[in-house]
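seq as requested:
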Amino acid sequence: MKQIYIGLAIHNHQPLGNFPWVLEQAYQQAYLPMVEVLEKHPAIHLSLHYSGCLIDWLEQVHPEFLYRLARLVNQHQVEIMGGAYYEPILPAIPDADKLGQTAKMGAIIRQRFGSKSTGIWLAERVWEPYLTKILAEAGVEWTLVDDTAFKLVGLEGKDLFGYYVTEEQGHSVKAFPISKHLRYSIPWHCVDKVIDYLRDEASDKEGKIAILGDDGEKFGVWPGTYDHCWQKGWVDRFFTELEANQGWLHTIQLGEYAHQFPPLGRVYLPCASYDEMLEWSLPADKSWEYTNLKHQLEAEGRQDVTQFMHSGLWRNFLVKYPEINRMHKKMLRVHQKVYQARVLGGGDCGLEELWKGQCNCPYWHGVFGGIYLADIRAATYNHLIQAENKADKIIRQHRSWLKRVFHPSQEWLEWQKTDFDGDGAEELLIEGDTFSVYLSPKEGGSIFEWDIRHHNYNLFSTLARRPEAYHRILTEPSSEKQTTGENAIPSIHDLIRIKDGGSSPSLVYDQYLRSSFIDHFLSPKTALKEFATYSYKELGNFVNQPYDSSVESRGTEMRVWLRRNGVLQIGRKSLSFEVGKEIKLETGKEKIEISYQLKNMSDSPVQATFGSEWNINLLGGGHNEQAYYQVPGFTLDDYHLDSWGELIDIERVVLGNHQLGVELELTAMPKIRLWRFPVESISNSEGGMERLYQGSCLVALLPLNLIPGEVASLNLIWQVKPSVTLA
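C-alpha cells:
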C-alpha cells in the first residue's frame, strides 16, 4: 500500500506589549482548543512551538495549560520545538544574542516539559544562509524553511517531500521545506480535499513526508477561523480523518522523522521567508505590481515562471521604514553597552531586557500591524531603555573606580557625533542620567528620540504616514486572487477588509519623518486642516534640510547650536533667511529648553508664519481616557490626545497619560498660536484596514513681520513631570 507521512509544526506567539485581553482571546480561541482537541485524539503526533513571551504569560495567567501541554509531551504525542526565546528575527540580532536566546529557550523546555528540543522555529521564517553555522553551534539539528526557497534553486514540488542538509563552513543543519500548498489548504479547504491531496501524493517509496509549518493563530484568531475551526469542527474532523486513515497516512513529529529517515540531499538556500513577508518588504508600488503580476501568472497556469519569481528581502524593512531602522540601531547600541557592562561587572547588566527589546513584532510590517502599533513600539523602547539604564550604571561605576572616585555623582551628561543609523551622515547623540536626546542635523536639525530614562519611555516613538500597497484597494480595483470556494473560507493573506469606513479620506502621506523640532514657514492664511493634510505650500527650504551644528559642554550644562541659511519664497521673491536654534540641557533635569533666533537676511520685508513642529507619542489613540491635554485658562471641547484644535495666545499646554505616569508641559515665550491634531495612518491588520494613532502633532506658531535685518525670537521649554496615576 502507498504511504505518506504528514509533519504538522504549529507556531504560537504573542508580542511583548500586547494588550492582556488580546492574549486572553487568543488563548481561549486558539491555544486552549488545540490542546483540548489533541487530548481527544491521542493518535495525532505533531510539533508545537510557543515563544518565550507566550510561555511567560501562560506561566503567569494559565499555568494549568502548561501542565496539560507537558502531559502531552510526556505521552510522546507532542514535541516542543525550540527557538530564540523572545522571538527575534535571527539575522537582525548579534550572534551572541542568537546563541543566548536559543540556549534560554532550550533550558526552559528542559525545565518545563522535561524534554530536549532538537529543532528550532525561525521567527517569521526568516532564513539567511549563514544562520546554518550559528544554529549548528547552538546545538540545533533541524529547522523549517518555506518551500519557495527550495524552488528558487531549481528543486520542484515533487522534490520537497523530505528534508535536505544545508551547510556553512563545515557546520550542517537539516532543513524541512514548508509546503505552501498545505499552508493555503489547512484549515481553509474542506477536510476531504486535504485528505485527497495527501492520498494522491502517497508513494511506494518509504519515508515520503508532507510538511505544514504555520501559525497557531490561524486556528481560531484570524477572522472567521474560530467558528470554522472549532464551532464547526474543522480541526476535529481533520484529526478524525487522520486517525481513520492511519493505515497509509501517518502523523509524525519532525524531530523523530529527522532521526528516523535520511536526507533527500544537500542544498544551499537563498535568503528567504514566506512569500507574503518578502512582498511586504518591497516598496509599496513595487509590492503591488509584483503581487498582481504573480497572481496573473498563477491564474494563467504559468508555474514554470512563478517558480523562479523572487521578491524582496526581510532586511529591506530597515530601508522602507526608517523608524524601524532607528529602533534596530538603538537595539544594537544597547547591545554593545550591555556586553561591555557584562565584561566589567558580570551578571545580567540588562541582558534580559535587551533580549525582550529584540522581539520581532515592531521590526516589520505586513498584515499583522507590526511597527504601526504604537503600544508595541513603546514596549520595545521600554525594554531597550531599561537595559541601557542597567548597563550604563555598571559602565559609569567602573569609570569612577578607574579614576579613584569612590563616591561618584549620579548625574552625568555626554555627547557623541556618530553615524547612528548607518545612512552615511552623522547624528548627534546626547545621553545623561535622566534622558537621551538624539538629533539629526541632516534632517532639519530635528530630534528623533527623547528617552526619559526614569520612565523607560521614548516620547518621540512616532511613525510617518506613508503609502502601502494595500492602500490601492481603497483607490482602485484589485486583481487580488481569492481562494474562496464552495467549501472554503478565505485565507488572511487573500482577504483585505475595510474595517474602518472612514479610512479612505485619511490617506494622507508625510513628506518627512514625524520627528520633532521641525521648522516651517507658512502663509499667514494657512489653516490647520491644510497643514495636517499637506494641502498647503511650504515657503521655506528648512524642513528635512541640513543644518550646521556645534556643541558646548560646561559642567552640568550642555548647549547645542543648529543653524541654517535658507530661502523663503514670498510671492515671486526668493528672500534670504536664517534660522538659528539652540538647545539647552542639564544633568538631573528632564527638560529641554529651546531658543529660536529667526533673522531676515534679505533686503525686503518678510511676512509669514513660523511653525515649530513636535510629534509626541503618549499612547493617545482610540480616545484613550488616560491620555489628555490640559491648557491653563482654557476649557477644551475635547481633551483627548487624538483630538484636533487651534488655540490662540497661549503660553502653556500640558500633555499626559495617567497610566504611563508621564506628563509633558510646554511653555512658550512669547505667547503662541497652537495647532494640535493626531497623526493617524491607515494600517492593514487581521481585522481589516483601519486608522491607527501614531502620535500627537503640536505646532507652535509665531507670526513674523520682519524688516530687513530684523530678528524674531521664540523660546520653548519642554518639561517632564509626573502624572497622577488614576485608579
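The chain has three domains: 4-271, 316-458, 509-722.
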